[in-house]
Amino acid sequence: MNDLITLAHGSGGRRTRDLIERLLLPRFTHPALAELGDAATLEIGGTGLLFTTDSFVISPLEFPGGDIGKLAVCGTVNDLAVSGARPLWLSCALIIEENFAIARLERLLDSLAATARQAGVAVVCGDTKVVEHGSADGLFINTAGIGMPVPGFRPTRPRPGDCILVNGTLGDHEAAIFQAREKLGRHEALCSDCAPLNGLVAAMLNADAGGVRMMRDATRGGVGTVLNELVRGSGCSAMLDEERLPVSAPVRGLCEIVGFDPLYLANEGKLVCIAAPATATALLAAMRAHGLGIDSAIIGEVVADTKERVYLRTGFGGSRVVSVPEGAQLPRIC
Amino acid sequence: MNDLITLAHGSGGRRTRDLIERLLLPRFTHPALAELGDAATLEIGGTGLLFTTDSFVISPLEFPGGDIGKLAVCGTVNDLAVSGARPLWLSCALIIEENFAIARLERLLDSLAATARQAGVAVVCGDTKVVEHGSADGLFINTAGIGMPVPGFRPTRPRPGDCILVNGTLGDHEAAIFQAREKLGRHEALCSDCAPLNGLVAAMLNADAGGVRMMRDATRGGVGTVLNELVRGSGCSAMLDEERLPVSAPVRGLCEIVGFDPLYLANEGKLVCIAAPATATALLAAMRAHGLGIDSAIIGEVVADTKERVYLRTGFGGSRVVSVPEGAQLPRIC
Q1: Which residue in the set A4, A10, A92 is minimally distant from B128, CB to CB?
Q2: Nearest CA to B139 among B176, B183, B108?
Q3: Residues facing residue A274 across a β-bridge
Q4: CB contact under 8 A, B130 and A5
Q5: Which of A61, A70, A89, A127 to mutate to test binding with chain B, by most B CBs within 10 Å of its CB?
Q6: ipTM of predicted complex
Q7: pLDDT tens across B110-123, in order?
Q8: Most buried of A44, A45, B31, B319 (most Cβ within 10 A)?
């Protein structure tokens, strides 16, 4: 059974990483790909540009706080934004299952178009494929995106003493998907955080472009997985404070009932930022002043530990390793 | 039942056009999209670039002459090439059905990588999603592509007297897919023409950049559908000569048995080119000198008929209208 693709290969966790490293990187040797960032950094005629892609296979297609159309814009816009690009253009490719209701497709496209307008990006090319009933699950959307590098910002490696920031509560997206899928009527307060983060990132870089070392959007695998990626190759580790992790009461309640860990729950409107300590307080203030960063917090710091691990300091004074999970807590959350 | 998506909506024919015009264009108003070309023409920091996307859902995944990996490169490379761009970079996004054999995935990725090398393009970013068994049919691939405009070439409208050229025999791809799907053992000679055309297009523009008015790759809907798109809005019509249409003996045989029309059969390595008459002979010679244009032919001309139709002059001296079909002859051929 090791020879078959499993849902864990698509989770964003360790199996996804294995798949990329074993199957994809050996075949595609462009330096931009080898960096494994959220977007490829390229140059055309002396002008820099960033390029990224994501397919969206979320189930259900509509959920509290969003739908696949909104998500298809946010996912790609956010990959560009956290890579230090101003998103400009999107492609939009639909794979539709036969017998899909056109009225529903229109509603999802309305949402996609509204989110693109909100994010200030233009959909400039597209494609439509239809497959037989039973050959796809409703609707899959791929978006690729092109952005222009923000002047003055270059991602750099984390250093000991750096602060680790997030722009709000963890796990809202995956918790909302879980609720929608399980039809848990009692958790009405659970709502996806799905949002385009390019405005927030612009405000952050405007406030402190020199102090921001790296950013990542904390999607599949959550903040725990993304932080493991950020410390990889840095020669440092990350130390989180459990007490400083912002988690909403409904998500905390769900995690206690179901046994989820909010550090591994996917977000679609949250980024992790590693920033120089000297200006971190000013950066935090700039984040909190933005509508998508009201609950921003410094959740930990980079420490001089060459094991390149993520640790969590618990309320009892101890600490544990936050490793990369094999797979996700739920499949098809984006 | 008019309210549901049908396979015809994905055929590349009239229903696809309806879907694009009714559902997509009203929501996305960027001028590059409104042109409905094979790629969007954009500008970043004063440098021109072209951007396109295609999803591939072909069944079966492997067929005589190619596979979904090869096709995923050719389709996007060819959209860029016929739009007058030198293809530079591709994204590659996989949607994989759970339990897909990893060895098969490796084989298809090998093919994708080899075709990218052959075409001189680099895969620079990607994405991997896995869906439950039964939620997709094996493997879908999306590629988006970025290219740089070839200096000296700008697509312009067809004019009466222009020549219509193709770079070889029609319908090989769809005929090969039909054979592979129906498991017709007797037609071994049927083989897809799937190939990256950027080298051929470079040779054509090198020979006659000023004489080439427009090019299109004749994929879904075949040469008949693509020519209808090319005359749309031009104020002219196209007159084809049935006797000059290059069709291989095995494809002709299949069409006679099954009732297919080679003018509507999809190709994956054929382009239609409209060119000024003065230099068309030199252009034809340049095409025939290229390995992917040996069977190139002038198949008709643009005529002063404001109905914007495509006509076929038959062997008996009559002519008939080649209209845009409602749907394709076969679903999921790319």
Answers
A1: A10
A2: B108
A3: A164, A214
A4: yes
A5: A127
A6: 0.96
A7: 999 999 999 999 99
A8: A44
